[in-house]
Design goal:
Radius of gyration: 18 Å
Shape: globular
Strand order of the largest sheet: 1-2
Strand content: 5-15%
Low-confidence stretches: 1-7
Distance between the termini: 11 Å
Order of helices and strands: HHHEHE
Structural class: mainly alpha
Length: 149
């Protein structure tokens, strides 16, 4: 059977900048709180690494789990759940794969460390685009493609 062209999520389900920002803020606060908890715990236990190193490691680990593993299992991070968003494949609107989510997480870290400071310093209007073959859409109005038998 010949299949038709890949379906792309309709533009009406695109996530607004406000929803994206809300999701980023929730995910950021979650990561910072996780890092703070790990850093405080490290400062209370003898022989542990410095609290700053432990806190940074805890924040990165929480971010990785939230953005890669939780999103792989549920199609959304904690922030995207709060904002009513989903992460889907750009080609057909289906569930994202683990390697693409890992690449997207690494891309996001690079974007946060390099592009955001440059954007703020130069007051440019450059916006982060969806990366690694994935896109963020509104949960309401998004139709999941049917599986072919």
């Amino acid at each position: 059977m010949i299949e038709g062209p890949a379906r792309i999520a309709p533009p009406e389900t695109a996530a607004s900048e406000g929803r994206r920002l809300a999701a980023v803020l929730v995910d950021g606060v979650f990561g910072l709180l996780a890092g703070l908890v790990v850093g405080v715990a490290a400062s209370m236990s003898p022989g542990s690494p410095t609290p700053w190193v432990a806190g940074l490691g805890g924040a990165l680990a929480a971010s990785l789990v939230n953005h890669v593993l939780v999103t792989w299992a549920t199609q959304r991070s904690l922030g995207k759940l709060a904002a009513g968003l989903l992460v889907v494949r750009d080609t057909d609107g289906g569930r994202p794969q683990l390697p693409a989510l890992a690449r997207r997480w690494i891309y996001g870290l690079g974007w946060m460390l390099f592009a955001v400071p440059l954007h703020v310093a130069s007051d440019s209007d450059v916006r982060q685009q969806d990366a690694c073959g994935l896109r963020v859409v509104r949960r309401r109005g998004h139709r999941v493609p049917s599986r072919k038998a």
